[in-house]
Amino acid sequence: MPDTPVATLRGASKRYGAHDALHPLDLDLAPGRVTALLGPNGAGKTTTVRLLLGLTSPSSGTVRVFGADPRDPAARERTGAMLQVGKVPETLRVREHVALFRSYYPRPLRYDDIIATAGLTGLDRRLYGTLSGGEKQRVLFALALCGDPDLLVLDEPTVGLDVASRRVMWERVRALRDAGRAVLLTTHYLEEADALADRVVVVARGTVVADGTPSQIKARVPNRRVRCVTALPLDVVRAIAGVERVQQAGAAIEILTGTAESVVRELLGRDRTLSALEVADAGLEEAFLAVTRGGSAAPDAPEIAA
Amino acid sequence: MSARLQRLPRILAMETRAEFLKLIRLPAFAIPVIVLPVMFYVLFGLALGGARSAGSVRISTYMIATYGVFGVVGSALSALGIGVAMERGQGWMLVKRASPMPPLVYFVAKVLMSMAFAAIITLLLFTLGVTAGGVRLPIGTFAILGGTLVLGAVPFCAMGCAVGAVVGPNSAPAVVNLAYLPMAFASGLWIPYEMLPKAVQSIAPALPPYHLARLALHALGADQSPPAGHLLALAGFSVAFLALAVVAFRRDDGRTYG
User: Which parts of chain A are beta strand (E)?
Assistant: First the structure.
């Protein structure tokens, strides 16, 4: 550990009634590091973010931010949060939103720096409601920067952005990391976690299913989906090396694998009548469900990954 | 700690200003809240009422008090009831809560903003009454009536808070209007209390706007009942609604809707 963590979760869990939103989770966020929480919707990412921001209290375990309770104003003054919001007040101008949030902090970042860093130059006189989706995301990012935070919590910062805007956002996050900020970001894009994170924590259904560097994670994930019509029985296909999961999909079968090339070679070698072959990227949800279920075919597995 | 306290007035001023700008630019809020009481006063207080009397004063004078109360209740219930329900249900309140903004500032700013709207409505009614309704009152009476109306926003802000803490964002406008409009009628804000049917008169004291209307009419010399009872009733309603709001917020735990 290069630096002492600025925020820690120790066995932090959350129950809503009978539903476990998050099983006990340990997490350390260190300065100059990006940690990605990767997982499908409903995996517990937003719950983790809310615990870290003191927006909900853990059912068990502890959450500390800068050595304090996350609800402590001293902790909040050093934390910036970008949350997923259904609706932001639309009849305020960008500069009014930013000026208001700057007033909350003892040592706010300079106004011009916030606008420049968030990519809002020339937009700050516009009403929030007149902005495009990507511009709105940038305003929420700007609000997270207002206090010149040492800890940044970004809940799905690039959701709904086009590829170009996503890459620009990545550059902004990298610049903050290089400036020594601790960053937690949630995402359901493996590519995003890979591009940004020093450490990736994969969560599914409230449980950590993998934890490591991006390359360690990628090696574990059966990230390709092979689809074909074959005369081979499912059991035979399942026995092929590298096959994580097989299921019938109409006349075709679907295979989840991390080694698509060798699996396809094997299939073609054994079945000369094989047809309608497709190889595609598997959705993350599908891939990690396969990991958590130990590769068994699941009757309720989604036909199409979310 | 003291540095935080020193920043508080500026945060509150910024927050109140933002709240005011937010709503004055929102026609769906500003038009009904400001135009309805003024329009009703013009129709019922000036056009129909004219020079006739209600009790000891002209109708045009009497209805400045009652439509003033109508406006105050409307702005407070809309701003707090609908505003808090929306911002809570759509996640904006979580962004505020995650920031170091002192939580009380969020509510106090909304109360001050409601008072600003109450003051605008009151001034519009005074101007119309004096110029078109022949309303003649000593300046001190205008001041006391105006002060009563503006401060009278407080219990309805508490009521709005409770509604906003309990009701979802999509049903909030309907719930607020279903509470507001019948309550206004039964409290004697549209038709003077003295002219209401007996059955309605008997339930009026159970409704907070009735008590504020009595205080406003008292300021005009049009109500002889002792003001202390009405003040006590409004204080009681405020405490009850605030308690309900606090309980509901405790239970809420950051839930959002759609």
Answer: 7-16, 19-29, 34-38, 60-65, 79-82, 151-155, 182-187, 199-204, 207-212, 224-229, 243-249, 252-257, 275-281
Tell me the CA distances in angstroms from A142 to A70, A127, B93, one per residue in order: 21, 15, 17
- The DSSP-derived string for B131-161 is HHS-----HHHHHHHHHHHHHTHHHHHHHHH
- pTM of the full structure: 0.85
Residue A277 has, within 13 A of its CA and on its CB side, a CA count of 13
Instruction: Encode pLDDT of A233-272 as tens digits.
Output: 999 999 998 888 898 988 999 998 888 899 999 999 999 9
Task: Give the distance, in angstroms, between the CA of residue B247 and the centroid of all CA atoms in the same chain.
Answer: 22
Task: Provide residues of A within 8 Å CB-CB of chain B.
Answer: 50, 53-56, 73, 76-77, 79, 81, 83-89, 91-92, 96-97, 99-101, 103-106, 127, 140, 143, 147, 153
Distances (CA, A) of B38 to A123, B67, B161, B219: 37, 8, 25, 20
Query: Which of A15, A22, A57, A87 is the best mutation test for B, with the most CBs of B within 10 A?
Result: A87
Q: Checking DSSP bridges between strand B57-58 and strand B53-54, what pairing results, if any?
A: antiparallel
Cα–Cα distance for residue pair B153/B156, rounded to 1 Å: 5
- ipTM for the complex? 0.91
Query: Between chains, do A76 and B102 touch, taking CB under 8 Å as contact?
Result: no
Alpha helices in A118-213 (DSSP H): 133-145, 163-178, 190-196
